[in-house]
Structure formats: structure tokens, C-alpha cells
Amino acid sequence: MEGSPIPVLTVPTAPYEDQRPTGGGGLRRPTGLFEGQRNYLPNFIQSVLSSIDLRDRQGCTMVVGSDGRYFSRTATEIVVQMAAANGIGRLIIGQNGILSTPAVSCIIRKIKAAGGIILTASHCPGGPGGEFGVKFNVANGGPAPDVVSDKIYQISKTIEEYAICPDLRIDLSRLGRQEFDLENKFKPFRVEIVDPVDIYLNLLRTIFDFNAIKSLLTGPGQLKIRVDAMHGVMGPYVRKVLCDELGAPANSAINCVPLEDFGGQHPDPNLTYATTLLEAMKGGEYGFGAAFDADGDRYMILGQNGFFVSPSDSLAIIAANLSCIPYFRQMGVRGFGRSMPTSMALDRVAKSMKVPVYETPAGWRFFSNLMDSGRCSLCGEESFGTGSDHLREKDGLWAVLVWLSIIAARKQSVEEIVRDHWAKFGRHYYCRFDYEGLEPKTTYYIMRDLEALVTDKSFIGQQFAVGSHVYSVVKTDSFEYVDPVDGTVTKKQGLRIIFSDASRLIFRLSSSSGMRATIRLYAESFERDPSGHDQEPQAVLSPLIAIALKISQIHERTGRRGPTVIT
């Protein structure tokens, strides 16, 4: 601290009507909106900071991180300047502004911070023409619950001014403590730049048997792996954990330099976008492949020759093999959670283990409440996210280490593990079809009319004949969730159609970017007979898809010939 105190300014502003967080305290918009609209980012940051009670805010510690996408450095500087002006006492920031979403959750919990701000648009593209986002995590390390998101939105609609220290400058590249004397503040404002991996790595060491994984990756007959960080935040984590700590060769890790535009790619770990990894795995040289999204909370698993493990299967297989992980041998397993659209493969494992399954709306914040109350040990979503009660976020690298632990313990390949699981529990064929970039008004009317159709009493008992298949409707509803912890009711979370053979169709509206809307269509069918486990999911599910298209008229009403993405 040198020179005169840094001034704290109050800047007049006007509210924007479109700053409602889409769930979990997150605002995701085109980058140009954050960059070009006057005070768009400061308005939302002020609304987030003002949502914290003044008594809790003054002198508190918060964590700040980003996935490194375009505009992150500018946004980080604004967050720091506004946190100082709003009475935050200390910020913990990853070096160069980099922190994965799981690492932010980890640090919040480790140091008992008041919360954290994560600058990410998750798996969405970056760059000036991409998307940018701001996400608020609360003191338990998890996404903000709906009551906090609602408070942020209400503040954003009436905001008249924000506080900022525009002359405050920090060096994000220099590890260690930086202190600043501010006008009218009794204590200096402190910023601590930390290694983005170290605290999170220390937590992983307490969960896994690193020696067993290292032996798998370095010993005789070592498993050759290929891990794609997709030029997102996970590059430093992959190199430090899998290569430096666990001994995987350096060339096992690809696309590990975080780039502002993710190398011009879509940082989404699925078969549509992780094609570099998929092609490498198809060659047969590698026995295990994984990819991560931009902020490190989502993941994809591939086996030799490109054998794909669906997210729902991955969740169920992890649940069935938790005894391979020292953490769960010590802590036990209390229950499982899955989002409603996620396949019911997890439920069969839970039944065999005699533990409850909690079916929630999409959104990790619902799992956080269950874990805080001690009800849930493992949870996951069909959108490539899995995690446990070690954090309050989904955690891609944790899931990869679980898979490597299972392989080390069982001494089987990825494909052998999956096929053994199907043989024991049956196979759930499952697909998700995304109709992206739709007009919100169009999607509203499609979902309104579909709800009126399927929730009418006369729809129960209807039969649909497609080829040689006849499907009889036994249950329909508009899914609502009553939180077993606090009784909070969350309504209109998707339309479900359940048939007599336990097949399911689900329609759900998603608007994570806020500007355009997405309708997601999910289809699921169960096959017990092992002789039927080698079919292509889309072929098995085609009769259900035909029913879904017929009753929704989605192609006719949107002008689309098919979905944007199939997973």
C-alpha cells in the first residue's frame, strides 16, 4: 500500500429488465451485451453484492474465478473494484483469474467464505461473438438457491447506482497478497492470488487412493489415456493432477492451454463437439478417454475404440462402484439424487443398495440442499454432470478419477465395466434431442398446448401404435418438486409421459442463455434381456420419438426438420 487512499465512487445507473438469473444465481448472455451495453455488468454485480445482507458483507471473504473466456479479465477487474467499494474485506482469486467451478466451490467451503463469483458461460462458445456469464455461489459452495436468485433479480429491476473503485488495479499473474487502502474504510482491502489447482488437489488427495491410480497409469501394462481440456479452464488441472501427480505421460493431455475463444471450438464434452478426442479414441491406441467443458464441471467418458459411456450410465456405474473409493468406504452412502430427465438407471442401483433416490428438477442447487441435510452422497444429471457431497457443484475431474479408480480396482476395461453393469441391472436406452435457438413465444405456446393435451384425464390409457410397437400411457404430469428439507415447491419442471413398459417421454423448456429458448425432448426405454443390449439407442427409441413428434408437432410449429444436437 503506497500513496493516498483509493477513492470509492457511487455511479448513477438505470436498471435492465432482462437480468433475471436463470437458476443458481447465473446470468448468461451474448458477450456483446456485457461488453457493449452501458453498465450491464456493473448492474448485475451490484445486484449480487447487494443480495448479501450488509452485516454479512462487511469485511467478509469471497472467491472469484473464471473459465478464461474472452472478457474475463476485464470482468474480473470490475468485480474486484466493486467488491472493494461494497465493503468486501478479502478476495481469493485464481492466478490469471483462472479457477474451475469445482475449485471455487472447494475454496469457498475450505476457507468458509461468504460466497463466490464465477465468470463463465459453462459449455457455451467464447470469443466476442460467443457468450459470457456471471454465476453466484453461496456460502455452502453451491449455486444460489432460487430465493437468492429472486432477490438478485428484484434488486436489478430497481437499481439506481453502484459502488466502484475505478482506480484500483491488481496484478492477476502475481501469486500472494496485495493490499489497498481505500477512502473511508478502516481496514485495507486485501486480494490474495492463489494457485488455481493446489487447494482443490489437496481435497482430491483425501478422497482417492492416488497410489492405486498412479500404478494404473504408470505400472506394467499401464492404461494409456487421452484427456481433452478443450482449451478451457481444466488444462492446468489435467496437467498438475493427472500428469504431474499421477504420472500420466504429458502427451496424454491435449488442448490444455486455456484460450479466450476455446480455439474456436464449442467447449462442450459430447459426441457432437469433442470430435478430436473421439477420433483419437477410435484408433484403439488409448484405453480411456475423457473431455471437460469450459469451466470443468461437466465431463465425458470414452473407452477404447470410442466406446461411449452415456452420462446416465456413468452416474449409475459410479453409484454401483462407490466401494472402490476410500472416501465412501469411510463416509458411507446415504442416498442418491438425479434430475428428473436423467435416466432411471440410477434407481435400479439404489434399489439394490437399499438407499433412497431423490428426483429433482434440473439444477445443482436442488442437490446442495439434500447434501447439506445429509440425505444425499452422490448425484448427477443427464447433461454430463456428476458430483458428490465433497463439494456443492458437479465435478468433472472428480468423476474421471472415480472412473480410473474403478478400472484400477476391477481390472477391467471401460466397455467391460459398462457391459457387466448392463448384464446385472439391464440397459436403459436414452437420448436427448435439443431444439435450440427458438423464439421464446413459440416455445411457450408449444409447451402450453402440450401440457393441456397430456395432462387431460382422457390422455391416460391412450395407445400409440408405431410399427410393431404399441405404447400405452399409464401416467402423465407436469413435474413439480417438494424439497424434503425445507418444503419449497418448484413447479412446471417438465412434462412427463410414462408408458406401461416403463418407457418415458419428457419435454422440458430451457432458456439458459436468456435471449433464445431451447426445447429438450428426452426418450428412455428399458431392456432387461442381455441379447438386446447391443442396439443403437436412436434405433431403439425411434418409435417413442415418432410419438413425441406427433403429439408435440414441434417440427411443424418451429419450421425445423430436426434437432440441433442429439446426445
Automatic annotation (TrEMBL):
A Pfam match: PGM_PMM_III
Family: Belongs to the phosphohexose mutase family.
Keywords annotated in UniProt: Cytoplasm, Magnesium, Metal-binding, Phosphoprotein
Entry protein name: Phosphoglucomutase-like protein 5 isoform X5
Swiss-Prot/TrEMBL GO biological process terms: carbohydrate metabolic process; myofibril assembly; striated muscle tissue development
UniProt source species: Hipposideros armiger
GO molecular function: magnesium ion binding; phosphoglucomutase activity
Lineage top rank: taxon: Eukaryota
PANTHER family linked: PHOSPHOGLUCOMUTASE-LIKE PROTEIN 5 (PTHR22573:SF27), PHOSPHOHEXOMUTASE FAMILY MEMBER (PTHR22573)
GO CC annotation terms, alphabetical: adherens junction; cell-substrate junction; cytosol; sarcolemma
Region feature Disordered, mapped onto this chain: 1-26
Location(s) in or outside the cell: Cytoplasm
UniProt domain Alpha-D-phosphohexomutase alpha/beta/alpha: residue ranges: 23-162, 200-305, 313-425
InterPro entries tied to this protein: A-D-PHexomutase_a/b/a-I, A-D-PHexomutase_a/b/a-I/II/III, A-D-PHexomutase_a/b/a-II, A-D-PHexomutase_a/b/a-III, A-D-PHexomutase_C_sf, A-D-PHexomutase_CS, Alpha-D-phosphohexomutase_SF, PGM
